[in-house]
């Protein structure tokens, strides 16, 4: 039996996604991103509300500085971006694919009423478009 054709973000998003707290150290974050093979992660408060986003690119220089100077790496809250492009689970896959053209994020947090419910990546969208094309 074949899977149903995906239509919206809810159909393809990862629900059990890696997320970080603003109090996490950048070193711990970098280890988590490497472990989960992600280019970034949503930052949430204790109620799972999306409050920011932090990427590998955001932390690379600071981790390098902490290695050179053998000092403690900063916390996520010091480097995270507060302005975050996010989507709702009801967003159309084709609409999001259009928005992802160009220099947009590789990962979009998926939120309902400010609460993080998952993530969707460019790869997820590409795979979904290929599935749609086959049907």
From TrEMBL:
* InterPro entries documented for this protein: CBS_bac (IPR044729), CBS_dom (IPR000644), CBS_dom_sf (IPR046342), CBS_domain-containing (IPR051462)
Enumerate the UniProt keywords alphabetically.
CBS domain, Repeat
Specify the CBS domain's residue ranges.
13-72, 80-135
Q: Which SUPFAM superfamilies match?
A: CBS-domain pair (SSF54631)
Keyword Signal on entry: no
- Pfam family for this entry, one: CBS
Alphabetized Gene3D superfamilies for the sequence = CBS-domain (3.10.580.10)
| Name the UniProt record assigns to this protein | CBS domain-containing protein
- Give the organism, scientific name: Vreelandella janggokensis
- Taxon lineage: Bacteria, Pseudomonadati, Pseudomonadota, Gammaproteobacteria, Oceanospirillales
């Amino acid at each position: 039996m074949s899977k149903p054709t995906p239509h919206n973000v809810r159909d393809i998003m990862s629900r059990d996604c890696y997320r970080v707290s603003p109090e996490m150290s950048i070193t711990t974050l970098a280890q988590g991103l490497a472990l989960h093979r992600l280019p970034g992660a949503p930052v949430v408060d204790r109620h799972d509300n999306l409050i920011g986003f932090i990427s590998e690119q955001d932390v690379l220089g600071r981790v390098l500085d902490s290695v050179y100077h053998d000092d403690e790496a900063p916390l996520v809250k010091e480097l995270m971006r507060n302005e975050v492009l996010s989507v709702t689970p009801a967003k159309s896959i084709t609409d999001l694919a259009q928005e992802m053209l160009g220099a947009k994020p590789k990962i979009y947090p998926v939120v309902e009423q400010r609460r993080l419910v998952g993530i969707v990546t460019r790869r997820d969208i590409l795979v979904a478009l290929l599935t749609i094309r086959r049907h």
